[in-house]
Amino acid sequence: MRSRSILGWTAAAAVSLALSAAVGCGSTNVEPVEVADAAPEADLPPDADAPEVADAADAADARPDVLLPAAGYCLGLTPKPRFCDDFDDLDLANDWDQATLLPQSVMDLDDATYTSAPVSYVVVTKTIAPGGAAGNASLRKTVLGTVSHATLAFSARFSTTTITKGLLAIATLDVSSNHFFTLYLRDGDADAPAAILEELTASTMTRHLLTKLPVAGSWTRIVIDVDLAAGKANVTFGGQKALEDAPINATIGTEATIRLGAVYLYPPSDPFQANFDDVVLDF
Question: Taking residues 80-88, what's their average pLDDT?
């Protein structure tokens, strides 16, 4: 990976995030912990090397290697969605509510690969032995409103999509404070771990098995479509159905909360890299 250190977030930066509480969201066999949800909002780490967007032109005169923001994917969308981030303002987390970063992982902006110039959002995790610490690294955003049909779409590029051990979730879409959907490349089922869209309510967990995986090493447009009014969910990878009209709890939601990255990563695990770009949430 050739990554421009826009924010320079490494394991050392994660010390500032509290690591103290758990939320009841995830597999029944492995209980994921989103540490930053329980912590106060963490100040984003300063970056002495990256220019403020407003001063980008001046900075470029002084430093010819500085990337200038492009026009942006999000600016071209009509009508405007509830939320969009293409990371092209060269600020990783300014449009998000919270960042979660545990010491086993790194999150940053990457100018080596993207779907809209000049950068994408990247998370990198390392080998974690059995019994090691979790490697969660993600961004979180909540948009309030009545949710009858929610869609989370993003472009992603993975170093691998065949996860043979541990547990790895790459995205979540919550539609209320007790109704969650989590996209796993490998879940924590004790008998037959698989790629799934997990649905969790206050009383029930349902595993919706995916029929295919994204192609590793290339950009894929991923869409999680949750139609609460019709009581069905769909997942597509590059326009191809991985989950089609799966029956879900048909309860209208009160908010949409999304997470993106190595949202839940539990050992043992091999090194993993995921790039994300052009994130759109609408409902």
Answer: 97
